[in-house]
Design a protein that fits this description.
- The structure is a single chain.
- The protein is an alpha+beta fold and about 100 residues long.
- The chain has 3 helices and 4 strands; from the N terminus they run H-E-E-E-E-H-H.
- The strands form 2 sheets. The protein has a two-stranded parallel ribbon. A two-stranded antiparallel sheet has the order 2-3.
- The chain is flat and about 55 Å long.
- The model has no long low-confidence stretch (mean pLDDT about 80).
């Protein structure tokens, strides 16, 4: 991720790239939020990023959530409503083919 971030900085000549790491698995321990490179006693690089744990998110009605909800927490009693809402959103999407 750090390498991709660095390449985006070079290609787009901007410092307005916000790094976010989306995790779809079910982690048993907290995920890292930074990448460090050390050389002896000197920390030469610290790259920080935000993390999103899909397995810890509740479903909210929006297109991004619909696309990612396979890995989100949906209570059994909410599943019929979620399915109907997803179908409604899909029906109203404006997609150019």
């Amino acid at each position: 991720m750090f390498i991709y971030f660095r390449c985006l900085l070079e290609v787009h000549d901007t410092n307005e790239i916000y790094p976010i790491c989306v995790f779809s698995g079910r982690a048993r321990k907290p995920r890292p939020t930074q990448y460090n490179i050390r050389c002896h006693d000197l920390n030469t690089v610290t790259f920080r990023y935000r993390t999103v744990e899909l397995a810890h998110l509740d479903w909210r009605p929006n297109p991004v959530a619909s696309a990612l909800m396979a890995r989100m927490v949906i209570r059994a009693e909410d599943r019929p409503r979620v399915k109907a809402e997803c179908l409604r959103m899909l029906a109203h999407l404006r997609v150019d083919l």
